[in-house]
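Sharing in case it's useful to others searching the archive later.

Someone asked me privately for the predicted structure of Protein unc-93 homolog B1, so I'm posting the question and my answer publicly. Question first, with the sequence:
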Amino acid sequence: MEAEPPLYPVAGAAGPQGDEDGFGAPDGPDAPLDELVGAYPNYNEEEEERRYYRRKRLGVLKNVLAASAGGTLTYGVYLGLLQMQLILHYDETYREVKYGNMGLPDIDSKMLTGINATPIAALLYTPVLIRFFGTKWMMFLAVGVYALFVSTNYWERYYTLVPSAVALGLAIVPLWASLGNYITRMAQKYYEYSHYKEQDEHGPQQRPPRGSHAPYLLVFQVIFYSFFHLSFACAQLPMIYFLNSYLYDLNHTLYNVQSCGTESHGILNGFNKTVLRTLPRSRNLIVVESVLMAVAFLAMLLVLGLCGAAYRPTEEIDLRSVGWGNIFQLPFKHVRDFRLRHLVPFFIYSGFEVLFACTGLALGYGVCSVGLERLAYLLIAYGLGASAASILGLLGLWLPRSVPLVAGAGLHLLLTLSLFFWAPAPRVLQHSWILYVAAALWGVGSALNKTGLSTLLGILYEDKERQDFIFTIYHWWQAVAIFAVYLGSSLPMKAKLVVLMVTLVAAAVSYLWMEQKLRQGVAPRQPRIPRPQHKVRGYRYLEEDNSDESDAEGERPGGRGDCAEEAPPAGPCPGPEPAGPCRRPCPYEQAQGGDGPEEQ
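And my answer, the predicted structure tokens:
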């Protein structure tokens, strides 16, 4: 009886059907190796590459949304807690019953001074902190400081409130500088992942065209500020759902108020010292503060878990390796750039207008005339107006970039002139709709101002080596302006409005002058960013095709692109250093070299 053939052919032996399989390919030991270990036959490299970069783009969008939501929750908690805390501490009965002779007004004054005065020193340490920790980790640590400030309100004492307020003031400018830098870097990454084929054609060292990431930057800034301005509305939730039920009505709180609006002096002159009908129970306060603490912790988790890194690890190494002394000096050296000097009035006005919305408009016009119980709704109108109007920033995709900024400035100028001649009567509700419209329109101008300035800085300064310095300067001037408003809080309302109008006109004129200079081809004078000096020369810095060098480094004469062919082999090199343009200069020569070719 003839044996049946095996179910599976024996490896390495020809089957009874012959030396070829059913597809005509040789079988057994003569089979080609590619058939066994080759690529998957249906593998489409172009399709896989497209899917890979699509995932990268979705990751960038996730980073932007997470950073925006984290900033919104952080400031919503901070502003809501601070507002509720100041109202409770203002009430005489609450202070005497809860804290006796502890001196709560003095503690609140020192706390506000710590929050507003400490950022003045931020220009000295912010770039160093961002380069040391990295952009993402600086955001996370700063959000953690805001959460620390929330936690200290469980035990309100001098040694908890004042130190946490000083720490919060130290974190304000680093948080905003790292957020601005982060959104700008995400726009640049999104452009790279969207145009990866062009990057492959031109090579990894070829920089993209100037301004190529501007549309993505504009969209990302609109997303960020649409989220962020919602924090003003979210901050009013503790007032609406908790504190408003304990407040007296306007007939009690405004009984001694004689003048409002442009006729007023200081902040709420004549306001009643008792604003609470009944004192909130300590248990209820702890529940509200616990909810705020949970939201602050959620903001930390959003930044930590969902925000990706702004730079590759080797880029972070290069950014730190320029030297800590240079990192400390470079923000001051950038002052020689005429573009920044022309934008300083706008930076200052940006700080003036946001604090005027929260104090001058909301308190001097709103609370002074329609009562404290409507403060939350005024600020909600401002926040929602600003959030919705941030979408108007997309007009920059079709209009010149100066249009949103100038439009916002013009709207604020009209509102300021109108407020200068308006003094609403106290305890009269017939004109309350005017206040809501004014708050919403002020929010529209604020949104155009914030999105326009942040987008403009990201377009003018594309080099990743400069962005943290530029956003530090921007938000430092903002902090200086806010501190000036804090110092001048007792001035008459007319004086505040005059200062606001003068600053606004000066900012608009200075900005338009800058744009005129750029159209005339005036070259800005930028300080040179030193080459990274790596103490440990790893393998990645010995390759001829150094993918980790900075963007500006590849363009300089004498860089790796010019000297790749003349580079000596790795390893010890006996004898003197070679002469010529490709020799690495010693530190003394670098110090004597001035500020480089960019200033000539």
